[in-house]
Amino acid sequence: MNACPYDTLEVRHLQVTFATYGGTVQAVRDVSFGLNQGECLALVGESGCGKTVTAHSIIRIIPQPPGRIRGEIFYRGRNLMKLGEKEMLKIRGAEICTIFQDPMTYLNPTMKVGAQITEIIREHSPDRKSRATLKKRCIEFFERVGMSDPERRFRQYPHEFSGGMRQRVLIAMALINKPKLVIADEPTTALDVTIQAQMLELMKNLQRETRTAFILITHDLGVVAKMAHRVAVVYAGKIVESAAAADLYKRPAHPYTVGLLNSVPGIKAVSGQTLYSIPGTPPDLFRPPAGCGFAPRCPQAMVVCDREPPPEFQVGPGHFSACWLLHNQAPANPLRNGFGMTQGADA
Amino acid sequence: MSDLIKARNLKKHFNLRGGKVLKAVDGIDLALAEGETLGLVGESGCGKSTVGRTLVGLHNATDGTIIFKGRDVLELNKTERREFVRFAQIIFQDPYASINPYMTVGDIIAEGIDNYKLFRGKERRERIYELLELVGLNRDHITRYPHEFSGGQRQRIGIARALAVEPGLIVCDEPISALDVSIQAQVVNLLSKLQRRFGLTYLFISHDLSMVRYISNRVAVMYLGKIFETASSDALYSRPRHPYTRGLLAAIPVPDPEIESARSAPLMEGEVPSPLSPPAGCRFSTRCPKSTTICRNMEPPLVEVADNHFAACHLCE
């Protein structure tokens, strides 16, 4: 790869392992991706596939030991892996911000919400600001994230907020310092569908408006379809397929992606019909398989799949897939023959 | 088909500190025909789990009747009640919290068998083997402990435990919401297979409307302790009548970027009001895009708006 094709973030060959009593877990096994300003990249995958560890590595909140991180993470030309903790503190919370899944564990239950937000502004502003200015900023932002009665909300504690309101607080906290990159880790998983729809709309609008780069981590392909420009599908610590969002849904080029897309019941689904399901479970990352991680569950696995990890094949502009079925010596299969192996009617 | 179990005007109120009363379920009618699956959906806190728990006897109903085979469950004597409880089993949401980590899988599954003294010794073990294979686990899992299993496998253990006493009705309380997408489909397919094989009746509680559609013959939508709409699942999804059902359906993100980008902003604003003080009149009137004066003053009854399609809304009559 040539020098930094991405202007905001580039992750190169990230590998993260954790030493535990039961052995070493290879949580992330060679992950590379990047993103530009104004772009929303979704990392999709099942639990335990390494998406959250990837996000935590970027903001460097993985304790080492037991964690061990290899690879390079470039943020606007600087290698985050080489920065000292003091410099990292300036970036974290100001330029790279996070929205986590569970707002109740992220907010401090003993501090008023207003105080928690103004603290973030104060910590990262070069000059001292008066209390009144801080409060004004905060209340402005509360209004922007759709909080009713912001003056009163400013003085309340987190337990007085509903789940949806707490998530709004987290979104406000992440965006108030006008970051360049926001990492949203399952931001709506704990919420009801109606609240989820509101939050996604809010995040999408704010993201488009501020042209912030967004990394969205989720397992919900519906959420991805709503938010993301590009998608990387993660399986067993590796990116198995990456493509523009529209392309991925129309022409999935990895059996795992195909399986995932087919196991989501569409809104057009008919009751009583058997739902497609991927057999088996993800591999044990204490002893990751030598070949392709998906091979044991793959309906089209070949001999080579168990032996050698597949390289990345380009299947279209900006569309990559790591699957041996795309090799020119593989037997004829739907993936190679112009791909698009979604079951049922194809557009 | 005749009704296997029927709840009429079912209420479950919880007394809280300070004299407050939480009306989790506030007068609902529900009927399950033998061999069918009724999906029960709604946002968190709407009372759907309380309905399921009250139905199988984990909560005592505050008011109303539950008719099972022509008799009121709440008036059964001790022996009859034991038989009813055996007949109506439940599968819980959290596969980590709902099975005892100190017991082996075999003992967990056999708890009901032992309680009802169904099998002993060699027969008991054979029965456990049979159940394990039925839910897609192996015979040698019998001596293992729950921590050795993944979420999906634990849910299978929970299903085997419910099946052990040969029930007719199983309340599935969000059995798949804690699982990954690819595993959810496996568990849903397993539940359907078991239903066909044993003629089970399910009350399938979930907040995931797209999964409910797959498994249910009929669906009931709940909001703040009341049922707002019931219909066959095809009718409910293709022609929803209640504005709340429409809002819920519109809120599901569709896994297709083209459809998603063409959709407009969500229909429903705000959040579910506190069940401690539900709004007067129609409980949905505070969030309903179409609410009128009558909605804010009078509670709409559940009426038949089309063939076997019931809705509680002043505007759909």
Describe this structure in words.
- The complex is a heterodimer of chains A (347) and B (317).
- Chain A has 347 residues and is α/β, with parallel strands linked by helices.
- Chain A has two domains: 220 residues, Rossmann fold, CATH 3.40.50; 89 residues, no CATH class.
- Chain A is 31% helix and 22% strand.
- Chain A is built from twelve helices and twelve strands.
- In chain A, the strands form two sheets. Chain A has an eight-stranded mixed sheet, with helices on both faces. A four-stranded antiparallel sheet of chain A has the order 2-1-4-5, covered by helices on one side.
- The longest helix of chain A has 18 residues.
- Chain A is globular.
- The two termini of chain A are 34 Å apart.
- Chain B is α/β, with parallel strands linked by helices and 317 residues long.
- Chain B has a single domain, classed as Rossmann fold.
- Chain B is built from eleven helices and twelve strands.
- Chain B has an eight-stranded mixed sheet with strand order 6-7-8-3-9-10-12-11, with helices on both faces. In chain B, strands 2-1-4-5 form a four-stranded antiparallel sheet, covered by helices on one side.
- In chain B, helix 3 crosses helix 4 and helix 3 runs parallel beside helix 5.
- The longest helix of chain B has 18 residues.
- The mean pLDDT of chain B is 89.
- At the A-B interface, helix 7, helix 8, helix 9, helix 10 and helix 11 of A face helix 6, helix 7, helix 8, helix 9 and helix 10 of B.
